[in-house]
Amino acid sequence: MIVCFDIGGTAIKGAVATGPDDIREFPRIPTPTDDFDAFVAALRTVIDAAGGKPDCVALSIAGIIDPDTKRAVVANIPCIDGRTLVADLEAALVLPVVVANDADCFVLAEAGLGAGRGHRVVFGVILGTGVGGGLVIDGKLINSDGGFAGEWGHGPVAATEAGNPPVHLPRFSCGCGQMGCIDATCSARGLERLHHHIHGIRLTSEEIIEAWSKGDAAAGRTIDVYVDVIASPLALVVNVTGATILPVGGGLSNAPNLIVAIDEAVRRRILRRFAHPIVVTAECRMEPGLIGAALLGLATAKR
Length: 303
Description:
- The protein is of the alpha/beta class.
- The protein is 38% helix and 21% strand.
- It contains nine helices and 15 strands.
- The protein has helices at 36-48, 85-93, 102-113, 182-186, 188-199, 205-213, 217-241, 256-269, 288-302; strands spanning 2-7, 11-19, 22-25, 29-30, 56-61, 64-65, 72-73, 97-101, 121-127, 131-137, 140-141, 161-162, 167-168, 246-249, 279-281.
- Strands 1, 2, 3, 4, 5 and 8 form a six-stranded mixed β-sheet that branches. Strands 11-10-9-14-15 form a five-stranded mixed β-sheet, sandwiched between helices. A two-stranded antiparallel sheet has the order 6-7.
- It is globular.
- The two termini are 14 Å apart.
- The model has no long low-confidence stretch (mean pLDDT 94).
């Protein structure tokens, strides 16, 4: 039995899993962000309600575990940021603990129970408030001991000209401290920045996509530029990893036509030719962080 958690800045989602097809969710509870003892107590309320001693506790976090120092980097929850989180939680809970990044848990869920089933190499793509990703090969996370693999959204690689005809683009500043990241240009906020830069009009990402779907020329121009910017680095990811399926999650994945446009642009840019879509909408409808954490915990408990 595994008790798994998806740790958000506002709420903690918990569940009990006895197998990949048996994951029972508990009601959400508020996340204590500034008090580690209160954070542990919140986890313990779910563990105590599980109906027995779990074999493992697994957490999905919006951050990473540094593979060298074993310290967590979790900006939105100060009470666990900078801690040797696995060791600290194991000492507090007196249980085995495993922790993974939320994007890693997403791709693990998609590889095991979603769009990536049957594929040896699965690269999960997050397009939402941020741009992130994770890599699973032969059913295992590359980041099994923590780390930054899959973070294709960061690095100064965004094009400075894109679209047909090309439009000049600035290197937008990114929350990671760099300039010109895909995260800053192709997240939901990035799409809004692009639209404002090209047309001088501020719209939400939802409004831009809706206008595009209705044939609005200005929104269509923005989407043309957006797809051109995002497709090349994503194609490079495919060439480097050999991924044969790229499930997409996050808010922008709710726009099927956008995913189709990205897929077509990516497949034109990669070395291997696919006759079928490879950039696809994610299939797991339950919280993928919970599913991924459950699968990670189940695999850990079997060792």
